[in-house]
Amino acid sequence: MAYEGDKILDSVTQKEYEFGFTTNIESDKAPAGLNEDIIRLISEKKREPSWMLEWRLEAFANWKKMTEPSWAHVHYPQPDFQSISYYSAPKSRPKLNSLDELDPEMRKTMNKLGISLEEQKRLSGVAVDFVMDSVSVATSFKGKLAELGIIFCSISEAIREHPELVRKYIGTVVPRTDNFYAALNSSVFTDGSFCYIPKGVRCPMELSTYFRINEGGTGQFERTLLIADEGSYVSYLEGCTAPMRDENQLHAAVVELIAHKDAEIKYSTVQNWYPGNDEGVGGVFNFVTKRGLCEGDRSKISWTQVETGSAITWKYPSCILKGDSSVGEFYSVAVTNKFQQADTGTKMTHIGKNTKSTIISKGISAGKSQNSYRGLVHINKSASHARNFSQCDSLLMTDTCGAHTFPYIEVNNKTACVEHEATTSKIGEDQIFYCLQRGIDMEKAISLIVNGYAKEVLNKLPMEFAVEAQKLLAVSLEGSVG
Amino acid sequence: METIATSTKEQLLYSLETSIVSSIDHLHPEISASAKETLKALEFPSTRQEEWKYSRTTRISSESWEVRKSSATYDISSFRIKDIDADEIVFINGFFCPDLSTVRNNGAISVLPFSQLDGQLKQQALNNIGSETSRHNSFFTALNTAYCTDGIFFFVQKNTVVHRPIHFLFLQEGERTLAMPRISGIVGSGSKMHIVTSYGSLDQKKAWNNAVIEITIEQNASLTFDKVQLEGDQNFSIINEFFRQHKDSRFSISTLTVDGGWVRNNLNIFLDGTHCESHLNGFYLPRGNQHIDNHTLVDHLLPHCESNELYKGVIYDRGKAVFNGKVFVRPDAQKTNAYQNNANIMMSDDATVNTKPELEIYADDVKCSHGTTTGRFDESALFYLRARGLGEESARKMLSSAFIGEVLNKVDNQFVRMYVQDILTTRGLWV
Amino acid sequence: MLTIKNLYSTIDSKQILRGLNLEVKPGEVHAIMGPNGSGKSTLASVLAGREEYEVTDGEIAFNGKNLLELAPEDRAREGIFLAFQYPVEIPGVSNINFLKAALNEIRNYQGKEQISAKDFLKLVNEKSKLVELDGQLTNRSVNEGFSGGEKKRNEIFQMAMLEPKLAILDETDSGLDIDALRIVANGVNAMRSPERSFIVITHYQRLLDYIVPDFVHVLYKGRIVKSGSKELALDLEAKGYDWIKEEEVTQ
């Protein structure tokens, strides 16, 4: 069986990266390097108000004093921050009245990714804010959303059109001093999404942004700000693929969510960036700061992620449960293969009374990869009757990979109840045999078992994403059993 | 902060350099010299280091400590374990007390201070000391190596069943004394022995104990190790333990922390042979302002080994408990079974628990799991007891006794178990 | 012995008891029946002092004392015993130590001497026979690994050991087969005396064939809507609760 497995492993790992292609669009690109002038240039290009520029410059001053974090269980060459270009925008920036006016090259890219706007519009009612490199080029469903008072636009546009909202909320959940990468992002972010759901409004469709790294050597510094006002509801989808590159690409996004009283935010991610080649060369460095604030009583933030890509992942979507009876959830499937390294998990900070959090993390390691769960559950003294349940499981596919669990549990209130369970095991041979005996081939068996293993998380994804995620898991793990 | 820490470190090292010659120098002077080199490079541990995130050492580093032989005579009877019939080895302030101790040197077992070692025993001791600590250059281990106050080496010959347990007592007296005792030992292949260590304060004065225990368990040998911690509220206690297991060996350790103002246990177990079995159990009961930190490492190096870990704590008053259990499964350690469980009950609004069970797994055909729970007593159990007429206080006591009883019942030796039970009863912690 | 006047009680701000009245004299056996959700178990919980149940109005006097002011353990010491519907498992606490502690606490409260180990064991032997409880069970952890029937027998055994003045049996019969039911009922009957009263909460008339009540009450929507002799139970068995509900509507 092992021999058979090796053969399949070889055949799969020889596969070229499915989404590895480049779109040829002329780019307006800033010279490489990072200094105050570049930040001024970015701010000017974006036609930002002066407060935004000052905010960026302060962040930059902070960043210069900070050092890269070293505690994560990942190893990589330190990026040269002076060799990255911090701004690139498609030159032929189209002003679109309809999708038909979109650059044909870009349309082709979208079709190849299987995210044709028309298709999505027609079939699933998804509004897509498509980001090619750093600038939004197409936004749909805007009119329909506007009727409900929902603002869904690029962050640049929001800075210009809704400065009062941006200024009120930006940096309140992820402060500019939070960490090295958040500070860097705050200085140089070029685009991203902004979303505001007014009081009592239930957003009728899944809001979605597909990010895509395009230009070689371009750092990606998206900034997402999502505010759900009292009693509102929104489900937000984020998904990404990246083209094949030899050099490492840095991605340091910041996502901030704010849920007011009785509001609910569901944030789902499928991440499938280029993981590097079979020798572990190249691949995206994914250093993301995602954090949600349950500001109001009974608010709820739910993170769901399926992480299959990137060479290095450093990502901890977190919840600050400030409002009484607020709820935080984290559902994650992280797959690593080849030489990928992932250090991902969540932080649940309980401040309000009767706050509740649930963590379900499913790690799957194959190839020569390293897959770590790192999570923090912090129960503040004020958080009476807080409850947490964590389940962190790891599945090992080969004897050359690693699976690690680093849960930090800090309890400062006696009425709290915190439970953590973790298991690590090999994919069940008897399960595979049972499938084989029923006539199911090895690959399908693994796909079945892995999807079953990850089902608890996959079920949390919106329908359209769940299908894509299942496909991704199967592709990422084909023939990877040892 | 950094400058203070550095200067504190230098002050400490300077005062030790001028007051003590490491007792390990008798074996080979180069061991302490290289430890001193290591100390130069290492920072005094602080909460900025991941390993010390939850345990502040500033109360140690801000104090000036003195290595001092005790001249007073004390009644140590309360630290003796009734009816156990053990050979006692007594250290006071880190110095071996021959008058209070039984040393042996016969064909089957040798238990001798470092200073009395020669010939083959000396060589064995030297090998044993070099083997562990050179691989673990933590600050406090290196500090003990560089300035060891006194040490005992024991050697159990092949296929020997040591009937009498050895009981090491580490006691301290006097204001601001620093003790750095060391036990180094080898349990020969096919042998069996029982060791008890206990730690205590004779006068409840402020003291710091920085001990190192390093024991090699040879092939098919079996060691049972009980550790009873009874130190005072003014004590700082850092116990660095290293156990290396060879093929087919069995090891069981119980860490019973009844009392201690500030305790850090660094327990390291290396499963360096196939088919080894390890059991680690412990309880801790921080009360008042006590701070009890248990760091355990179970390092599975080779295949077909099994480890079981159970640590339980009841945290009272402003007590603080830290648990960090690390399980490593190295690439060669296929067919490993590793289980870890940490459970905490919080009895007060001001209590704190920081727990971090870690699994680092580099082999695939393994079964590993860990679990941790932190919370209050099961309210329905409490109500049930109260509905039967038990006062809330005694109901809680009964439940906490049952809770830590699970750990205490794993202690094989009934005299140790009764000794600890009696102390717990006196402290009002057992019914 | 027990007087309940106009009792109102809520759980999670849901109104369960709505003006319940009940008088229990020494030596009497009262059966309380009623459809699901009528408040039977709430009554038992309120009497035993479960904190989740809030008493919003009314009073309960037990032998002249205001029961509502007493902590659960003091109610037990005053002589109230609740046989739980779902006896709780307590890992690590031995049944025997548990009982000894309980017995001594109650004796202490009543100004009696602590029981000697010898007398206690004698008592255990004697009382465990009453419910045909295996000696092994008394040494195990409280209810841990007990079957449903063993748990219920253990409850009655404890009752026999603690000799309460008022015993409340909360659906002690549910989940029992006929043999176990007979054993449990025999245990209860052996304890009947002119000083001791029982409140038997049950869903099934079957139990009342074995423990014959002096009074039967029907609890509906948090109040006792009908009281009568043991014949009422037979009527309920034959006709169900619907006629009671209809009567309630027409009134």
Kindly describe this structure.
The complex is a heterotrimer of chains A (482), B (431) and C (251). With 482 residues, chain A is an alpha/beta fold. Chain A has one domain. In chain A, strands 4-3-7-9-12-14-17-20-22-24 form a 10-stranded mixed beta sheet. Chain A has a 6-stranded parallel barrel with strand order 13-15-18-21-19-16. The radius of gyration of chain A is 22 Å and the shape is globular. The N and C termini of chain A lie close together (8 Å). The N terminus of chain A is likely disordered. Chain B folds into 2 domains: 265 residues, no CATH class; 53 residues, no CATH class. In chain B, 23% of the residues lie in helices and 39% in strands. In chain B, helix 2 runs antiparallel to helix 5 and helix 6 crosses helix 7. The N terminus of chain B is likely disordered. Chain C is an alpha/beta fold and 251 residues long. Chain C has a single domain, classed as P-loop containing nucleotide triphosphate hydrolases (Rossmann fold), CATH 3.40.50.300. Chain C is built from 10 helices and 12 strands. Chain C is globular, with a radius of gyration of 18 Å. At the A-B interface, strand 23 and strand 24 of A face strand 20 and strand 21 of B.
CATH superfamily of chain C: P-loop containing nucleotide triphosphate hydrolases
Category from helices, strands and their pairing of chain C: alpha/beta
How many domains of chain C? The number is 1
Low-pLDDT windows of residues of chain A: 1-23, 91-96, 115-127, 132-139, 211-219, 241-246
Strand content of chain A: 25-35%
- Strand proportion of chain C, as a percent range, falls in 25-35%
pLDDT averaged over residues of chain C: 88
The helical percent of chain C reads 40-55%
Number of strands of chain A: 24
Compute the CA-based radius of gyration of chain C.
18 Å
Low-confidence stretches of chain C: none
Helix/strand order of chain C, N-terminal first: EEEHEEHEEHHHEHEHEHEEHH
Which geometry of chain C do the CA atoms define?
globular
Q: Treating each run of at least 4 consecutive H or I residues as one helix, how many helices of chain C?
A: 10
Overall, the morphology of chain A is globular
